## 1
Amino acid sequence: MTPERAPLLEVRDLVAGYGAVQVLTGLDITVAEGEVAVMLGANGAGKTTTMRAISGMINRKGTITFRGEALTRRAPDEIVRMGIAQVPQGRGTFTDLTVEENLRAGAYVRKGSGIEADLEEWFGVFPRLRERRSQKAGGLSGGEQQMLAIARALMSRPKLLLCDEPSLGLAPIITQELFDVLKRLNTEQGLSILIVEQNANLALRIAHSVFVLETGSIVASGTAQEISNNDAVRTAYLGY
Amino acid sequence: MGHLLQYILNGLARGSIYSLIALGLVVIYRGTGHLNFAQGEMALFATFGAWWINDHGFPLWISILLAALGAFVGGGLIEYSLIRPAAKKSPFAVVVITIGLFQAFNSLSGLLFKGAATGLPFGTLFPDAPSDFFRLPGGVIWRYENIGVLVTVVIITVLLFVLFQKTKIGLAMRMVANNADSAKLAGVPTNKVLMLSWALSAAIGTIGGCLVAGINANVSLGTMFGVFLLASAAATLGGLDSPIGAVVGGLSLGVVESLVTNYPNDWWGSTYIGADTAIAVAFVIILVVLLVKPSGLFGSTRVERV
């Protein structure tokens, strides 16, 4: 269904881990411009490690290319400036800061112009956040915090949004709402998104391409259609 | 009643000093979670620096500003060269290093400044002739110097508040304090922020050290011991990560110290109950507060929902 799109993010032979523990043992993924890519994998497969490696939060080897530029040796703040924003696992909201301050924090890498307009835009997309703009983020519900985390990441005006298990700990109806928002961001704004998920059913519904991660490397990849029809993947991740 | 007000005013002056050193502790603690045990002795060293500059013919206020500037640079360098590499290994290594710095700065002061052990004369920024005071009702006097010290603390607190709440650098500092991981992901160069915290803390400490020296009219190797003890108590009382807590904690400990030192004297004419008892009473109060509210008076109890 997807015509050939230019690659936005290319990860080749990525090796990363924590100290002596190697979690990723040669991982390859490609995210094309304008698509939603989903990485499925069980606990401990290396999903979060992949995300942290892309954002430069941990030491890594291999090549990561974003819009033609190598970013394997770059620091997290440079990577944000290049246009990759991450919503970390567990949302990572600044709980002591107000909702509005969280959004301004997301715009940290930007200079003055346009920040106010973007603030209004995201308050428009997430009206609950506008209602609570001067409240501390720590008092928000899990779903609101996840919306805030996404809006905060978007305040840096990324080309690529990384979402690490956005559905974690959320009620099914909230998760549904969340994925609707992500889909809208993709179709209406052309935002490229890489989502890491255990909730395969929902994720597959909005995905263009899918990667299946097992113990540190990709064991299957293809379009959402192909992966849904893959028997092994279906039993392992979709449960039917 | 007149006495009460008098003792409170005296206590506020001393408490202001505790507040300043406590503020320095809080600025570092917020960013890194480290308690800088060398806070008092770093301030002492910089105060000797101010004395030295002053001794070379510069006006006192310029000497203090230059010393604070030097401390700003020095504090940043300490973070960069000692604390940062140690923090990568273990938090305990940082504790050991700050204790080492405590010793190092005290010894270095003794080595570099002749007469430091017995004390060097130190001027004050504020008028302190015997007649320099306001007369308040009830025979209470409020010395200009005590007012000046209190006002200095208020000004620095307000400046810090503006820095934290109204500037982008302040926002970055609060981001790092609240969630270092997310701050990094949002593009904050967290290392630079921590370096700035140490720099800022050292500069604030310098002002505190110079004010103590001014009140004592003297600076010696022992000047900061007691001050640091009460300042760290003040920071704990206020909640370690709250600047306003440090100020309130410092001022109230100063007042408690003053009351406990003076009242028994009035009642029983006893000189046995002195500053040492005051410290004991201060610590009992802190113990009680922390039992009731473990995060301190203004410390943040993290509310998080998952």
## 2
Amino acid sequence: MKLSVYSLKEILFEGDALSVTCATDGGEITVLDQHEPLIATFKPGILKIIDTEHNDHYIPTGKGFIEVTAENTTRILADETPQVTNN
Amino acid sequence: MFQLIKQRMKGAQNISQITKAMELVAATKMRRSQEIAIHSRPYAYTALDILRTVAALEKEEYTPPLFTERAVTRTAIVLITSDKGLAGSFNSNVIKKFEQFVREEKISSKENYVCIAVGKKAHAYLEKQGYTILQSFVRAGDFTTPEETRPIAELLGKLYSEKTADRVLVFSTHFRTALAQETIAREILPMRAEMLTRTINNIVPEKGKYSELRSKGQETESKRKSRNLLIEPAPAEVLESISAHLLHMELYHLFMEANASEHAARRMAMKNASENAGELVQTLTITYNKLRQAAITKEITEITAGAEALAG
């Protein structure tokens, strides 16, 4: 499936992926190929993406939205992760 | 006489130095805000596209308040301008667009209109014209952050869902290129599929980076209607939080575009000002030199005439 992950500042991921896992407000879901259309909100956390070469990508995000369309496209809009300070 | 011209020359020179500096500052700021605006475009595009999907949904189950249309009696108007002047026609274009709207709608009483001013210029204008200003957002700075636009989005959402306003119009400037900006009036509430499509087409640039999104959006248009959408966990909650968040994002994007446009407009204005000052210096220098030469010639003539008179 085609996956794009956007934050306001940058494109976090764009390309083909086998699966994406994220913690929605209703529980953790994994979106695979040909998933049925879906809109959900998710909590701050880490997105796990497996791309077509079976490489794992871990992307920390703030809260956001995930949309799966009937055309096998998944789009994720994520807030910036809150800045972590070391002090 | 000499002193006067010299003073004016100095003045013009100083002006050209200042305007040149301002031009450089505006150019740097423009580049930065342009970058921010352009980087937020994929996000804004996707956000609006999701909104459009939601707006096109079958309305049987649940319609979030921000999508519900109703008869218009009261209108909320948002004017997005800058705090600072010296930006050419940037602010006056927004105001002109608004005045044109006032003429077209044949607004006689200002009672049914509440205004939200963004930027000191909008505030000053609306106050002078006697509109009800609900709230003013000034001193937003050169680069608007999502935190700064959040209260505005919340206010608009509240106005609409509490039925204080039946529609919300935003007058703002769209950044097309560094040389061309366009003032656009948008109806952002209620959220309607057609209006969102229009905004999307505005956001997606005509050419260059991200322009491929333009054709992509049109392809999926026809398939959009006929599908079942799973909304998790509960449609009401999700749709409400989505519509509120995405309204904020839409507004934020409009601000980014306005920021970039402001700096671009200021850069152009300052560039023109420096050029004019340069021309002025040139003409003044020529006048000064001519006068000086004339004075010298006159003195020499007097001396030679005096010498000849003595010799004679």
